[in-house]
Amino acid sequence: MSSSYDVVVIGGGIIGLSSGYYLTKRGKRVVVVDRGNFANGASGSCDDMILFQSKQPGINLELAFESLELYKSLVSELDDTLGFHSLGGMVLIENQKELEVMEDFVKQQQAYGLDVVILDQKETRKKQPFLSERFIASTYSPTDSQAYPFSVMYRLAQKGRDMGMEVVHNAPVVGIEKQGNGNFIVSTAQNLHFEAPVVVNAAGAWAKEVASLVEAHVPIEPKRGQVVITEKVPAVGEANLWTARYLVSKLKSGITLESTEEELRLGLGFAFTRTEGDSYLIGSTRENVGFDTRTTMDGIRAVVNQATSIVPVMKEVNMIRVMAGLRPATPDGKMLLGEHDGIEGFYTAAGHEGDGISLAPITGKLLSEMIVDQKVEKRLSELSPNRF
């Protein structure tokens, strides 16, 4: 016996809940089926960034602008602050090689409409007086923002339920079968069955496995990100911090930047963001270790050592918690959003890697328009799951 819906969303993280919420808002009967408990996947073990400066001009930056506006409206729509703040962000520049790349990149972003500038060393230290003196410059954008993932997910689920959306936890999907009437039957390990003409694969790092149940190709691989959380401390500077090193390596493949063997193995990057609770989230690694969500001593040590090297005053701060989550990564760094050719009614909304928090609202909204209005904007063709 199966329960009938208009849409079954597989995955109860921030992308799945956003998808379910916006579909329910458009009048669809939706059930969100999640393999675990609330927020125990990537959405519950990540930083809180709505980061613009990491994005090259193009579809990801464009959608980030749209998602930011949706976050602003969701604060009132969901009756919650959502931990939403625009504290601004700085990308720290360590040498002339990085500066040259970032100057060109900032010009491109400015031309695309992003409010971002280059600060010299004196201006950088004015905003960040506790910063290591080795940094010669930084970028700065007041647009970089953040939202508290737990609040966003909780309120999306709660408001969705108020409108009739159902959320089922601890129900790993083990089967998806197309019936003669065109509907899918989605089965779980607990022998629950959900029937609907539309299925949305929003399973994050597990999206490849879910897609295999209908023989769809989804080249998403998990990358483990280890993050450290500090005790409550006074604000360290005026804005959140990132470093240019990882960004420059992505922008200019011909540039060689000095990295240790450990940094390369861990895929070490730097993010330093202040939470609504007055602590700091510090990260993170990008490790190809399959579905292993354990934290490791070498990973956490590398994150902490990097943080205290960049912001030396953090040596005086207690690190009180560590966590690791799996970021769903695609080969080209863009999410998959759309219906699969040859499998009518099967959609994927996954592969955001580090942009899940940033792009969750716009992903849910665009997906609802694809399903309800049966229209796909031309610009979204580069996100199609059929591009691989």
For the biggest β-sheet, the strand order reads 6-7-5-15-16-17-14-18
State the name of the first-level CATH class of the largest domain.
Answer: Alpha Beta
Number of domains: 2
**Strand portion:** 15-25%
The DSSP helix count reads 10
Give the biggest beta sheet: 8 strands, mixed
> What sort of overall outline do the alpha carbons produce when their principal axes are compared?
globular
In the CATH hierarchy, what is the superfamily of the largest domain? FAD/NAD(P)-binding domain
CATH architecture of the largest domain: 3-Layer(bba) Sandwich
Structural class: alpha/beta
Outline the low-pLDDT stretches: none
Task: Provide an overview of this structure.
It contains ten helices and 20 strands. The protein has 388 residues and is an alpha/beta fold. The chain has two domains: 3-45 and 150-219 and 332-387, FAD/NAD(P)-binding domain (3-Layer(bba) Sandwich); 89-142 and 221-329, D-Amino Acid Oxidase, Chain A, domain 2, CATH 3.30.9. β16 (271-274) and β17 form a beta hairpin. α1 (14-25) packs parallel to α10, α2 crosses α10 (356-373) and α3 (96-111) crosses α7 (244-251). The chain is globular.
